[in-house]
Amino acid sequence: MPEDRDWEAYKVPPTRTPESERITSVPNPITFIQTVFNYVIDAPVTFVREWIERQQAKNKFYYYHQKFRRVPDLSECLEGDYLCFYEAEAQWRRDRMVDQEIVEIVRERLGACKQREGPNQFQNCAKEMEQLAQVTKAYQDRYGDLGVHGNARTCLMKQKHRMMEERKAQAKASQ
């Protein structure tokens, strides 16, 4: 690339661009419209919004800590009480999601312990492994084999059948 450039071909813009000031006796209509908009529309809306934000700051509501009241179990619903059936189903789904998260948290803790301990993981993470085994067994006992379309009724029937099998096993053992 040549050292001396052709300054005439590539002109540099001037360092200061002069601003043209139009001085007229007629005011600029845009300035007038902006001022009217600011005082008529923007100022009241801003005032109301700030007042609402001050009121909300006094009474903060954390929506992500929503607590649902416990509803009766499906076994406690009366026959034909479809609203109770629906609420029990929604409660069961929330409980299932909570139990899934518990299993996931325990699994993440075990993974973090294994990562932290390295070759000594079997010795130092035995407590976490035992806790994961207990949690997954409890989850499997309650929700296992229900499949994707499991619901509160099938889960209740599964519990009932398991309890009946346990009673039969106890009766055989006591004879």
TrEMBL record:
Annotated Gene Ontology cellular component terms: mitochondrial inner membrane; respiratory chain complex I
Record's keyword terms, sorted: Electron transport, Membrane, Mitochondrion, Mitochondrion inner membrane, Respiratory chain, Transport
UniProt keyword annotation of rRNA-binding present: no
Residue numbers spanned by region Disordered: 1-21
Main location: mitochondrion
Pfam families registered for this protein in UniProt: NDUFB10
This protein's record includes keyword Amino-acid biosynthesis: no
Bilayer topology: Peripheral membrane protein
Superkingdom of the organism of origin: Eukaryota
Subcellular localization, as worded in the UniProt entry: Mitochondrion inner membrane
Function: Accessory subunit that is involved in the functional assembly of the mitochondrial respiratory chain complex I. Complex I has an NADH dehydrogenase activity with ubiquinone as an immediate electron acceptor and mediates the transfer of electrons from NADH to the respiratory chain.
Protein family membership: Belongs to the complex I NDUFB10 subunit family.
UniProt-recorded name of the protein: NADH dehydrogenase [ubiquinone] 1 beta subcomplex subunit 10
Species the sequence originates in: Spizaetus tyrannus
